[in-house]
Design brief:
elongated, alpha+beta
């Protein structure tokens, strides 16, 4: 996958840049990239849970948002 394809896959230059610094996207298929992104999100969620247990992770319109539970 090339960087322009990564930008198109993410829908955002900002998200593509973040992923390009953390994942070997050039050697990954779309399904492998999806799995890697899910793993990153779970890892972030787990780290956040230890520090602030009342946080819910939401992925809305291609943008991750941490919101407080009501």
């Amino acid at each position: 996958m090339t960087y322009p394809e990564l930008v198109e896959f993410c829908g955002s230059e900002r998200q593509a840049h973040f992923l390009s610094t953390r994942l070997p996207y050039q050697r990954m298929s779309e399904s492998e990239l999806t799995d890697a992104i899910c793993n990153l999100m779970v890892r972030v969620k787990e780290c956040t849970q230890r520090r602030r247990p009342n946080i819910t992770l939401q992925y809305i319109g291609g943008i991750r948002r941490d919101t407080l539970r009501a």
